[in-house]
Design goal:
heterodimer, A: about 325 residues, mainly alpha, Ferritin, two-stranded antiparallel sheet, 12 helices, 2 strands, B: Ferritin, 10 helices, 1,2-phenylacetyl-CoA epoxidase subunit A (chain A), PaaA (chain A), Aromatic_CoA_ox/epox (chain A), Ferritin-like_SF (chain A), phenylacetyl-CoA 1,2-epoxidase activity (chain A)
């Protein structure tokens, strides 16, 4: 294809996005658009799958049957999100096996928040309330992103995430109005999950390398700092309502900005975890890799069986 | 308690679904593929949902301060009356599937009859649950066939699992004194009568899966009397951890 032809295709492509038209799998798209989407959608899918582990950790120990069933259903939803996000990603010409390979070799990233341990039951509340709460703020704009399959997957994901967020908050509320021990458990979980949740919005705008391009393609509608501020403004009153304290001595309502000012995020910790040295990076990856490796014989068997059945049927047909 | 036999009878059914659901819950996030992970979680959810219906009914019968949770979490090991089969560990996917399959075939036959129980609550729970269990049975039977007639490795593993678990199947057809009392009143199912169909159905699937039907006539029992395998204590220490550590709280 001539350079001129490519330029004109690119122009048409950018115009379609400007007109808010959806890009579909069979449409022409710039290679960089394809790669960026593979990176982001797979990172999102991986986060869902790795995200099953910290919560899965409490299924066998949930404190009541009702909570056990709700937690199972939640983790199952996450597996479902992973499934349709991987499918959306596959429409860009990459297989699920390749995507897993990227995850297992560390080439692909997933949300760093899942590299923190879940050490008490209250962590199930904190994750739902804060982590899913932050995820929704990040994800709602994606329901209108330019790539059709991703946008459609996100509509469903967001509906379920918002249910999870309410469920998490309800766990926290129950603890907060429980015994002093339960309230301490809730406060301790908030203390541990607050800052990592703020880090979920990524580096500050000044440090963020992908923002400009992503805004153009509507993969992002607001900057990291704007989204983080929105999360804080939304969450602080929720904490106050149930009598929990945000662990930030610098947190203060700013009348002029009509927003909360907040303390400095520990970016050294952020980069340490991103680079693979968080408290649970190694364990999370080991769990994924061993599930995959231990399952190889099962997947091989399923393929062998399907082939035998096909052969058997074609013999019958003759 | 006035309805002691009925209460015990319900526990005899619901402890099975509780412990099998608990065991399946261990696997969530660790399955061989995303699809099997979702399916196993789904089965676990069904079983625990059924457990809640049974225990809510049992709690009413028991009265006092009993709830579904006190029944599920606050008994001692000797008071759980699930069969030994359901407490067996998930050694590999073949064992998970084998255990599920050997239970599902029984579970379906049981619910088929329980739908006609003279107790309207039990009959209603059975009626609702059988739709779910029909899916469980299809899922586990399909996997027994896939693994049995897949690769050499999967065949060996599936056969090993069936051989290991076979000794726990006979107990499914034992009855306790409470069971007998409930059978006499037309409330309980006489599981002894299910035995022939059970082994016929199981053998038919094993045949299709090109697996051998174990010939051993040595069986294990005890669960129904509260005498469990050594695995049970560990299941309970996980399951009861919160309720035991933080007694009398609302979650």
């Amino acid at each position: 294809m001539s350079e001129e032809k490519i330029k004109s295709l690119e122009k048409q492509f950018e115009d379609r996005i400007l007109r808010d038209e959806k890009i579909e799998p069979k449409d022409w798209m710039p290679e960089k658009y394809r790669q960026t989407h593979i990176r982001q959608i797979s990172q999102h899918a991986h986060s869902e799958i790795v995200g099953m582990l910290p919560e899965g950790n409490w299924i066998t120990r949930a404190p009541s049957l009702r909570r056990k069933v709700a937690l199972l259903a939640k983790v199952q939803d996450e597996a479902g999100h992973g499934l349709y996000l991987y499918s959306a990603c596959e429409t860009l010409g990459i297989s699920r096996e390749e995507l897993y390979e990227q995850l297992h070799t560390g080439k692909a990233k997933y949300s760093s928040i899942f590299n923190y341990p879940t050490i008490t039951w209250a962590d199930m509340g904190a994750i739902g309330w804060l982590v899913d709460g932050a995820a929704i703020i990040n994800q709602v704009p994606l329901c209108n992103t330019s790539y059709g399959p991703y946008a459609r997957a996100m509509v469903r994901v967001c509906k379920e995430e918002s249910f999870h967020q309410r469920q998490g908050y309800e766990i926290m509320m129950t603890l907060a109005k429980g015994t002093p021990e339960q309230k301490d458990m809730a406060q301790d979980a908030l203390n541990r999950w607050w800052w990592p949740s703020l880090m979920m919005f990524g580096p500050t705008d000044a440090e963020s390398v992908h923002t400009a391009q992503s805004m153009k393609w509507k993969l992002k509608r607001k900057t990291n700092d704007e989204l983080r501020q929105q999360f804080i403004d939304q969450t602080v009153p929720q904490a106050e309502l149930i009598g929990l304290t945000i662990p930030d001595p610098d947190l203060k309502w700013n009348e002029e900005r009509q927003s909360y000012d907040f303390g400095e995020i520990d970016w050294d910790e952020f980069w340490q975890v991103v680079k693979g040295h968080g408290p649970m990076n190694k364990e999370r990856m080991n769990a994924r890799v061993s599930a995959w490796e231990n399952g190889a014989w099962v997947r091989d068997a399923a393929i062998a069986y399907a082939e035998k059945q096909k052969e058997y049927k074609s013999k019958q047909a003759i | 308690m006035k309805n002691k036999d009925l209460y015990n009878y319900i526990l005899g059914i619901a402890d099975n679904t509780l412990i099998l659901g608990q065991r399946l819950g261990e696997l969530c996030g660790h399955g061989p593929s995303l699809e099997t992970d979702i399916a196993c979680t789904n089965i676990s959810l069904d079983l625990l949902g059924q457990t809640r219906s049974y225990f809510q009914y049992a709690a009413k019968l028991k009265g006092e301060d009993a709830t579904e949770d006190t029944i599920a979490f606050l008994r001692t090991e000797r008071q759980y009356v699930n069969v030994l089969l359901v407490e067996q560990p998930n050694i590999d996917f073949a064992h998970t599937i084998g255990k599920q399959f050997l239970f599902d075939v029984y579970h379906y036959l049981l619910l088929e009859k329980l739908q006609h129980s003279k107790d309207v609550n039990l009959s209603a729970i059975a009626h609702k649950s059988i739709k779910e269990v029909s899916y469980h049975q299809r899922f586990s039977s399909d996997w027994v066939k896939r693994l049995g007639d897949g690769t050499d490795e999967s065949k060996t593993r599936m056969q090993d699992a069936i051989n290991d678990l076979w000794r726990y199947t006979d107990e499914l057809f034992h009855t306790t004194a409470s069971d007998e009392a409930m059978i006499a009143q037309g409330i309980g199912v006489d599981v002894k009568e299910l035995k022939t169909s059970y082994y016929e159905r199981v053998s038919a699937i094993l045949d299709l899966a090109k697996l051998d039907i174990p010939e051993s006539k040595w069986f294990q029992e005890g669960g129904k009397k509260g005498i469990h395998t050594e695995h049970m204590g560990y299941i309970l220490s996980d399951m009861q951890y919160m309720q035991r550590t933080y007694p009398n709280m609302t979650w």
